[in-house]
Amino acid sequence: MPKRDYYEVLGVSRGVEVAELKKAYRKIALENHPDRNPGDSAAEERFKGASEAYSILSDPDKRRSYDRFGFGGVGASGGQSGFQDFGDLGNFTDLFNDLFGDLFGGGRGGRRTGRGQRGADLRYNLDIDLTDVLEGMEAQIRIPKMRPCETCDGSGVRPGTRPETCGRCHGAGQVVLQQGFFRISRPCEQCAGAGEIVRERCPECRGAGRSEGRQNIRVKVPAGIDDGMRLRLLGEGEAGIAGGPPGDLFVVISIRDHPLFEREGSDIHCQVPISFVQAALGDEIEVPTLEGKVMLKVPEGSQTGKTLRLRGKGVPSIRNSARGDQLLHIFVEVPTKMTKRQRELLAEFAEESGTEVSPVTRGFLEKLKDLFD
């Protein structure tokens, strides 16, 4: 499914002020927060989508980039995997709690933690070829990671049983002590701040809710991606502990060196050797590109260092579909071995040329004169 416009997700106009933006996000997040909608995957997706949109639009720099370039400007791809390549949105729950304080059991210093803990983020280095950058690609990777326990479905509780609500804190995970004018909250000692007490743990994972395993994951690499960029796959990290949310997987792109081409932004550079005869007389030669060979006309009198340009033969930009150019740098080769007849011909050429001086040589001699006279 394609990603929805961030403004549309929050139900606001593009000229929305920060206060209204915050108000719109607060309303959606309150209605769809996982604590209020346990087991409702659709509500969880709406909550995550609103959190992602708010994290971008509430940042002035990211918002300007998004307004100008769309999802490409903030590193978000349009696939279901939820890629992020130019920055992190952070933990949705942390973002929510920073904004809403203690609506769901306390602020930064005293919110209910729950039994579950978020799984660790993972990193995977993916090597691709320069040719893969042209149209993008889809890679299959296999990673070792902690996965949800199949016996208890990640809850950490013995099948057929359920955690009990803590009788001391009544599920809040905190107890509040009143001392005069002061109210002090601290984690409940009976449930260690979880709000729940597990009487019977899963025998397979011993209450952790996860076990070691390997998983095959599809990674969609967008066209124009550059070396060192990251793709963020939401929820593809390690499974959470005791039913906690999973971490994310960060795929770091490494582009292998190419034997002929060097990349600079969206442009491709290539050295092209020609003979001194071709350089002097001009010629039409065959040159390589990322998509195959093409014919190139070398002008008469070409010198080493001359650059010829093939329009649209570079790589696409990550921000749009426009492709760069391929720049071919001419290198004139001088023969190291010649036949007797070749030497005779060159000698005749030198005699015929006489004292004629080329414009390049003339300019060099004039610079020498200016330096040492």
Give a structural overview.
- Helix 2 (18-32) packs antiparallel against helix 3.
- It contains eight helices and 15 strands.
- Among the domains are: 1-102, DnaJ domain (Helix Hairpins, Orthogonal Bundle); 261-372, HSP40/DNAj peptide-binding domain.
- 24% of the residues lie in helices and 26% in strands.
- The chain has helices spanning 6-10, 18-32, 41-57, 60-69, 92-100, 276-281, 340-353, 359-372, and strands at 122-128, 137-148, 164-165, 174-179, 182-187, 196-197, 210-221, 230-233, 249-255, 261-264, 267-275, 283-289, 292-298, 307-310, 326-333.
- It is an alpha+beta fold and 373 residues long.
- A four-stranded mixed β-sheet has the order 10-11-15-14.
- A hairpin with a 2-residue loop joins strand 12 and strand 13 (292-298).
- The longest helix is centred in the N-terminal third of the chain and has 17 residues, at 41-57.
Morphology call: elongated
CATH architecture call of the domain at 261-372: Sandwich
Q: What characterizes the major β-sheet?
A: 4 strands, mixed
- CATH-defined fold name of the domain at 261-372: HSP40/DNAj peptide-binding domain
According to CATH, the homologous superfamily of the domain at 261-372 is Urease metallochaperone UreE, N-terminal domain
Helix coverage percent:
10-25%
Work out the radius of gyration: 32 Å
Number of strands: 15
Class from secondary-structure proportions? alpha+beta
Q: Give helix and strand order, one letter per element, not per position.
A: HHHHHEEEEEEEEEEEHEEEEHH
Quickly name the level 1 CATH class of the domain at 261-372: Mainly Beta
Strand content: 25-35%
Q: What is the average per-residue confidence, as pLDDT, rounded to a whole number?
A: 82
The end-to-end distance, rounded to whole angstroms, is 74 Å
Q: Number of helical segments? A: 8
- Strands in their spatial order, largest beta sheet: 10-11-15-14
Low-confidence stretches: 77-113
